[in-house]
């Protein structure tokens, strides 16, 4: 940290919180010193999503990613467990994996040839026995491990802080919502092949907000709604396959749809809405089987309601238009890299798989009919934050309808949110994120 | 490579250039008319650092559309309601090294290299490139595009990627 020692740092001024008021100062998107503090206190100490287990099934299979700005890779061990390491050679720091993913039971650094086993032990120092003479004991060097790695139902997280609370505690009530995606097949879930990475010229927290924001959908995605209703109309009445249809048109009447939003403990946020046409959902074919295993109420949450589950600070599980995992990697205060994956139930029918993929392509990439408009919205919000004559974002919507604790739908799932709101077109879920953000910055 | 009649090669080069021209000059209806009614427009995604997805039924693509999908894209452009394309960027398609790679009956395959420079004042210039693989089908009044595969080499996509800027 440059000039803000922990004792001097006071993040309280960024949030204006009074009865009936919740405002966030726009400098939170712009201040480079604050960004450095976030990298240290949030990304350096929180559980951060690394990958899905299905991406690294075999011994030595790895995926490279970042925790904050730190490059790391996650790798499957000989005994089936999962470890993660800083993606830097123990010798002089060269990055070890040029690729985003691959398989390497022995990882050899391209710089001077040191080699490591998948468990991080250095197994070879080139020329160590030769005339060079080395003062290094091979046995004493190994890759720097990410001190904590844990998995919840296939979702692998890592934390750079060895003293962090267990992952299960951190996820808390969010686990019930993760289950709604993770439990869609008794054979497990898998990431589908096909990478999608894109850039946003905006602060990472704008993606955290946008991922949960039910309020922008009817405006920013109006164009998605009208274009897809037009396409649906070309299918004609003879369209035999309900999964070919979309629910895009409902975006235009979101205020009339039964929906809700929750703030969970530890900064996680949920928003959901009732689907009008559950038979258009690829999971619908598994309904009877899922009900036998999980009961009608949980399956109602799985199939009849679309959900966004935003896990603090930079993970989204979206089961609205299709099933998507999204992370956003902070690069700089005004630059963010976003990556998404399609997660699918193993064993679904070929028709459901195809429909899931087409619906994913409709929405979840900068080549889609929706995400480019989200990126424009977030970049627009970032650009507008430079206007210093008005410095507060007023997260006012839904203050009057918000209640403390669980509503009926949350109780049916067995979760106890901090607050519930009977409408996804509300901004109250953000309170929980920003309070957690402030708490961690101050800690 | 297949031996190809010069007239056929010229015909293929002409339709490839015409598609680029129609996109760059925003003649959307004429552009759509180049495509057969059962056409497929496919943009594979990266499968790894070494290659692209090969199976659109089981892998995620950047786009995989039938003609109704293309028509929806044009509908979206013309409705001018997408924040990402306010304003729509100017584009210049540079399509070159056009080569007929196979002929079979009424169908022809061809491949070409492409670069597209887009410019909008809001976002500045972007440059992307890759390869087109075409399947053309002979209709009474000339060639139609039965299938177009667009390989986009660029990763970490900046701004919107749409039918007019690839
Ligand atoms: S930096 Fe890796 S062997 Fe020298
Ligand atoms: Fe959105």
Overview of this protein structure:
Chain A is of the alpha+beta class and 443 residues long. In chain A, 26% of the residues lie in helices and 26% in strands. Chain A folds into 2 domains: 48-159, Rieske Iron-sulfur Protein (3-layer Sandwich), CATH 2.102.10; 172-442, Naphthalene 1,2-dioxygenase Alpha Subunit, Chain A, domain 1 (Alpha-Beta Complex), CATH 3.90.380. Mean pLDDT of chain A is 93; it is low at 1-7. Chain B has 166 residues and is α+β, with helices and mostly antiparallel strands. Chain B has a single domain, classed as Nuclear Transport Factor 2, Chain: A, CATH 3.10.450.50. Chain B has helices at 6-24, 28-33, 67-79, and strands at residues 35-44, 46-48, 51-52, 61-65, 90-104, 107-120, 124-139, 142-152, 157-158. In chain B, a hairpin with a 2-residue loop joins strand 5 and strand 6 (107-120). The longest helix of chain B is centred in the N-terminal third of the chain and has 19 residues, at 6-24. The model of chain B has no long low-confidence stretch (mean pLDDT 96). Chain A binds chain B through residues 98-102, 192-199, 220, 222-223, 226-228, 230-231, 234-235, 337, 341-342, 350, 353-354, 357-358, 360-361, 365-367, 369, 372-373, 375-377, 380, and chain B through 43-49, 53, 56-64, 68-69, 71-73, 75-76, 79, 81-86, 155-162. Strand 14 (196-200) of chain A pairs parallel with strand 9 of chain B, so a sheet runs across the interface. Fe (ii) ion is lined by residues 210, 216, 220-221, 374 of chain A.
